[in-house]
Amino acid sequence: MIKVGKVLVFLTTAMVLLCGCSSTELEERNFPLAAAVTWEETGGYQMALGFQRVSDVADQKTEKENRANIAAAGTNSYELFEEADAKNPGKMDYNHIKALVIGQELLFHSEQLADFLDFVEQQNVIARSTLLFTCKATPEELMACGENLEDNVGNYLKDLITSSQDHKSDAAVTLGDLLKAYHNQDEMLMIPELGLDSGQPVIAGYEVLCGFTPAGYLTSEQGEQLLLSCGELLRYGIAMEDGSLIQLSGIHCQYEIRGNGAQVDETVWISGNIKRFAGEIPENMEELFADELTKQAQEQLREQGIDLTNSYYKLGGYDRTAYARYASDYPAYLANLRIQYVCRFHEI
Predict the structure, then answer these.
(1) Are 202 and 284 within one domain?
(2) CB-facing half-sphere around the CA of 34: CA atoms within 13 A
(3) In this predicted model, what pLDDT tens digit does every residue of 195-211 receive, in sequence order?
(4) With the CA atoms of 181, 182, 186 and 190 taken in that order, what torsion angle do they form, in degrees rounded to the nearest 10?
(5) Domain boundary among 197, 220, 243
(6) Where is 269: in which H helix or E strand?
(7) Is residue 23 situated within a structural domain?
């Protein structure tokens, strides 16, 4: 019976895939490409969805058009999506969402964020590969930006991340990364924060979660140092105090993490090619840059408890004794961490 059941499931699945969706089904569906959701103490969950036309998704002719935006609310995640479905003129299909924006009120409310993540994961509502952002603006304000854009909000936010020529393709933060941080609660997650500039979304900085707990805010420059330290950049621009402009490329990172009693010492080696764009490259360029990176990393540890190298995630592979000591005490690990950078550059 088990084998027969598996065969029947396979045949049923194959028939669905081969038959595809009829033109009538496509015409009845709406495809949100962006979702923004937040939490209000008095109103519960608030969500806004941004759409594109069905005719843009497939070569189907239809007289029905999607609304520009749909707003929904609910005291729990089930009610939230139920209301969104009810307000939609056709069947809702969330599989095409490009960007999920979590409002800061929800991001900083661990209990409600956990409820939302449990729902979208268990119901498989939104794909884990969906790009993740946060924003202070309301969901309605963010989706209204679509009126000022040449493309819909979802595609615009996707291009905002993927069009960068300096970042590696896997540097983007996704819903899957947030789910992983939620379940493991043992790593740092840097989520791009959107600001509104002349009615258009821009990346203003980054909100950081450490062990699924809000840790603080990083400027764009500090966020770039984190990406550099984690080997997520292809290129990095360096502006010296004398006005010299230098580009670092071919970036490679190596790490050493060792426990020294209660203290944990981490050394980050950064190597790559440097090229002068303006001014001169100092003879002690490697030392100057390493000292600046070390200074910034230690300041973030002291002031916000943010590790710009995300070393806790790698600790188990370098020092099992230290990992066992701090396996259930992430804050203590950060308090006892000391970071040092060493740079080795080749001028081209």
Answers:
(1) no
(2) 29
(3) 999 889 999 999 999 88
(4) 40
(5) 220
(6) strand 263-278
(7) no
- Give the residue among 34, 45, 109 at the shortest CA–CA distance from 68: 34
* Low-confidence winner among 69-73, 136-140, 185-189, 313-317 (lowest mean pLDDT): 185-189
Do 195 and 240 share a structural domain?
no
| Tokens 């089930």 sit on residue | 78
Query: Tokens in use for 236?
Result: 């990095």
300 shares a domain with 198 = no
In this structure, the answer to whether residues 246 and 329 fall within a common structural domain is yes
The answer to the question of residue 1 being in a domain is: no
Asked if residue 6 is part of any domain, the answer here is no
Residue 213 lies in a domain: yes
Q: What pLDDT digit, counting tens, does each position of 109-124 carry?
A: 999 999 999 999 999 9
CB 106 within 8 A of CB 112: yes
Q: What is the pLDDT of residue 346?
A: 96
Q: How many CB atoms lie within 10 A of CB 109?
A: 18
Is beta strand 263-278 parallel, antiparallel or unpaired with respect to 99-103? unpaired
Element (H, E) at 162: helix 153-162
CB atoms within 10 A of CB 197: 9
Q: Which domain holds residue 312?
A: 234-347
